Amino acid sequence: MSGHHISSAKFLWGVGIVLLVLTFITVAVTWIEIPSPWNVVVAIAIAVVKAAVVAMFFMNLWWDTKFNILLLVMSIIFFMILVGITLLDTLYRTDPIPSF
Amino acid sequence: MAQTSANVKKGDHVQHHFVDSDQQFESAKMGMWIFLVTEILFFGGLFLAYIVFRSWYPELYLMASDHLDTFWGAVNTVVLIGSSLTVAMAIRSAQLNQQKGLIINLAITIALACIFMVIKYFEYTHKFDLGIYPGAYYAYDGIAHDKANIFFSIYYMMTGLHGIHVLIGIGLMIWLIVRARKGHFHSEYYTPVEITGLYWHLVDIIWIFLFPLLYLID
Asked: Domain count of chain B?
């Protein structure tokens, strides 16, 4: 199986360091009180970037068949459909579930 | 001598219903990705619960999150990223026929996973001491909100399910070391290492989202 992609040790360490830097940034942005909706947006955006780096370069999707990327993207799309349709209900209730 | 034994091994792992080693490898990997899709949707249900209750009680999340220790959450993030790196290094070792490197990297991964679980244990017991239990067992009055138990129910469900995945990962990694010591893996066949690696990276990705969503809100 000579066709498989083999990452160099240097590259893998580089990816690891990038992830650690992003972890530091996501903690550091909480020190500079960003106003309300945007702090969540920034936190999620950094998490998405980190997840994408892991998926592309640790899970090797970058060099993989497109079908496996398609599977990952589809799972995210279906998760968003789940969230979207549920919020259409829960956001517009006059009273949330009484006992909760 | 090594040459001939490698030649004997070469075709051994290919099951009769596959054309060749590559097709078998790609099929196994695709199967794993389909499993990971179900895992994403499995955790997705919990993320949805998080989102719905946060939209209902945004102030509760801000108050309750103060009771989670950002420092230990961050340490655990670093530990898991480190373990993802060592898993990637383990796969590289297997691809290069480095028996020893494979076993060492898997062992470091297990050690990091255990550190993660130990930190999680101390976080949980600290909360239990305060009376912060999930659901109806919640018995802490430090948070001035009627629904305080909801945040911690979600916290325990999400981190608990994630913790179970870490424990399963440790089990899989031990299995890989046992097989690696028997010399089962080499550059032509390392599918179980690759596939366990994919699983482990997904567990890391889930934590990457859990950390800011649970610990970093205030």
From this structure: 1
